[in-house]
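Structure, all two chains, one model.
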Amino acid sequence: MEVKGETYAANISSIREAHKRIIPYIHKTPVLSSESLNAISGRNLFFKCECFQKGGAFKFRGASNAVLSLDDDQAAKGVVTHSSGNHAAALSLAAKLRGIPAYIVIPKNAPKCKVENVMRYGGQVIWSEATIQSRESVASKVLQETGAVLLHPYNDGRIISGQGTISLELLEQVPQLDTIIVPISGGGLISGVALAAKSVNPAIRILAAEPVGANDAAQSKAAGRIITLPETNTVADGLRAFLGSLTWPVVRDLVDDIITVEDKEIMEAMRLCYEILKVAVEPSGAIGLAAVLSGGFRKNIAWQDCKNVGIVLSGGNVDLGVLWDSFRK
Amino acid sequence: MEVKGETYAANISSIREAHKRIIPYIHKTPVLSSESLNAISGRNLFFKCECFQKGGAFKFRGASNAVLSLDDDQAAKGVVTHSSGNHAAALSLAAKLRGIPAYIVIPKNAPKCKVENVMRYGGQVIWSEATIQSRESVASKVLQETGAVLLHPYNDGRIISGQGTISLELLEQVPQLDTIIVPISGGGLISGVALAAKSVNPAIRILAAEPVGANDAAQSKAAGRIITLPETNTVADGLRAFLGSLTWPVVRDLVDDIITVEDKEIMEAMRLCYEILKVAVEPSGAIGLAAVLSGGFRKNIAWQDCKNVGIVLSGGNVDLGVLWDSFRK
């Protein structure tokens, strides 16, 4: 797709190709709706349940597209990542499908359930210290020793194309959507979703949902350039990354607005997902619902005609013990 | 359907009619699968997610069929029940759709979330003491005062026919099923599911899952007559009812076996539903997965060729606070 003469890292063709490539392996996730949540929000909400995706998050779409795009010689040496989140589990699973090794560099303080997911899917865990420096140096060592391919969790056209397949399914399942709300972190998910959705329906609005405590995307949009933060502070552990060189141009040009929400709004939305929708989401996964229920969105006259709103429930990987404690607060 | 010259309270025709009647109002619930759970169980499992049904449980199918079957004069006076569970919420919602009153007699000790569900759907709560005598006498009084129709939660052909619509959808969604596992309590759900499924595919096996602490159905099958228990003791609060005069003949003739499971197996299955399937089920809803993972099922040579197993996740209404405490144990 080109806007203002800009060529992005993915486009509708690469996204359609990705869909053809991965369709035998992914779940076509269902779209759920709830009249109770429609009444609470005053809109028609359509929840795209990527928490039911293989690996428990949308990440498998991008990871499987990237792994299946490698030529045989490249693939044989395996893949590496130093993400400790859902991308790591997804990459492990995608590599397992192709029968190649996945080397996953994980900091010692990573959540237990995410480490277990990597192991369940056959990823080889290589421990590092918690600092980004340690993670990168351990990953470099693995790359040198194995000749494997580093697959970045979001700053990669193949990953962005894979995530964009969500829009192809969602707009087929609910053609009347006028808005899609998507969690934003590094921007891989929303870039893919925006590129595909605006190509299918140029009038559709794409809104990002971001935690106040990790609002680098909102600051970046306001400044007109990538802003990173010295630190982040949010319950949504999947939303702490910063925009990359390939995702920023898409976010800059195609994301209509960024709605920031407080952690307590995320937890309340998560509770509604469990109690009303009966879907087990992680905090990052619930942020789209938090956004549509937030005062900032409700009171903004620009979004009053958002009637049929798609919400991407991006993932469901959470330590139940940690979750119980959060709800108790 | 007739077996051994027996005519049951519902049959494939009444179930197809029910489906036509309720299809504009119900959710066609999705079927989820998980390779991780397939690996754990050694079977291909297909989860029919009735926890995503309106009202959070399959009960809306039967309740809406019953309410929509009433003639206008009957309907105008409203409906009554003294179930405090998912049937009460479902009946409230069905009555609201038809614009008639629902009088719900609820004992003072009922779980908070179930009372809230009734209120959310517009049911009129009428409190009774916790005893069955008090519930019945309060309900009789309401019937006399209003002329409303009492709708039993399971011992009613219209209710059984509504629940049977699950099989019509499930066998269309997953035609290769050779077995369906269904929670058993009063028997309305399993009667409908068995009547429809065995009519569509006479070779299909229907297995019931029942808590050890409320094993009246297993005892009834063994004795060849309805057995009730002086008391029940199980975490699965939705599975404490006893078979009725209309459900017993179906259970006796069409249910191939009853698998009993311990409460700790139910809680472990529930944890797997949350952690792997990402579906928020109530304990009663998770019992089918508990059954397929139980030693009794795995070791029974009769069920070794159950390869493609449908599991009805019957409901998802649970007090999160109570749930957290259960998981902590």
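Chain A has 15 helices and twelve strands.
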